Amino acid sequence: MKTSAIIQARILSKRLHEKVLKKLPYDGQLSVLEQVIKRLRQSRELDEIIVATTQEKEAEQIVKICNKWNIKYFRGCSEDVLSRFYFTACENNVDIVVRITADCPCIDPEIVDLMIKKHKKAKIDYTSNALIRSYPRGIDTEVFGFNALKRAYNKANKLYEREHVTPYIYKNPQIFKIANVKAPKKHYAPEIRITLDTEEDYVLLCAVFSYLYHKNEYFNIGDIISLFKENPWLKTINEKVVQKKVIGTLEEEIEEAIELLDMQDLKKAKDFLKEHFKK
Fold it and tell me: What span, in angstroms and rounded, lies between the C-alpha atoms of 239 and 97?
């Protein structure tokens, strides 16, 4: 059984352009994507690492990184990320997919290995540590079999199902066998955000790497949680960042829009939506 990490990476990110190319540490030589690759190379359960990127010309910069690190890459559709994963897995004969996003430079290979072991032992279709959040955001790991991926590719027909890869699987527990892995008490910290989506996120990650990276290039989740306990002010850097959500219906999107407008104190627009669209 071939187990491969497929890293989802593109240059033209909407909220923070070229985020995977930003340097970490700030004064360092490696990019965010390279830190993800470097960390995943510490895994004992992965057979290989593949980057699934896009066909856009800008993605040549990602291809150069893959060549530098001597890892495989696949270039597919920028919007239909589900198809990109499916064809990446097909081309490389992957049996078990470990989905990692390139904006998680603190990914912990020990947790990745734990997830793979639990998935194999349970003999199920899909395993995640983020369906019910208990780990910090940015340690997210999804593990699923090729058959589940193939069925999702063939059956998923909603835009958000194609864009976010796995919703068709985890939103259909009557079809797929699904498990959520909860963090142990010592690693329980769902309020910590160490993923990269905004400038505020990048500032926080630069601070985290400044504190930890020069002591241990492979600092782990325990080091991160200890750092935040010792320096609780770190959370304030990106505490107002709104995480993008997987939204499936117009009604859910309107609900989310109303919440965002309320946060920005845009009361007229909020009241307009509530009056015209809410039931």
Answer: 31
Whether the model pTM is above 0.70: yes
- Amino acid occupying residue 219: F
Per-residue pLDDT reduced to its tens digit, 228-254:
999 999 999 998 876 555 555 656 666
Cα 173 to Cα 167: distance, rounded to the nearest angstrom: 11
Q: DSSP letters of 47-104?
A: SEEEEEEESSGGGHHHHHHHHHHT-EEEEE-SS-HHHHHHHHHHHTT-SEEEEEETT-
* Continuous segment of H or E residues that includes residue 126: strand 126-128
Whole-number Å distance between alpha carbons of 21 and 34 = 8
In 10 A of CB 233, how many CB atoms?
8
pLDDT tens digits, 185-215: 999 999 999 999 999 999 999 999 999 999 9
**DSSP of 17-55, one letter per residue?**
TTGGGSBSSTTSS-BHHHHHHHHHTT-SS-SEEEEEEES
Beta pairing class for 48-54 and 72-76: parallel
Distance of CA 120 to the CA centre of its chain: 21
Residue 247 CA: distances (Å) to CA of 42, 81, 171, 176, 244 = 34, 16, 12, 20, 9
CA–CA distance from 245 to each of 80, 104, 257 (Å)?
17, 16, 11
Q: Which CATH class is domain 3-187?
A: alpha beta
3-class DSSP state of 11: coil
Q: So where are the chain's domains?
A: 3-187
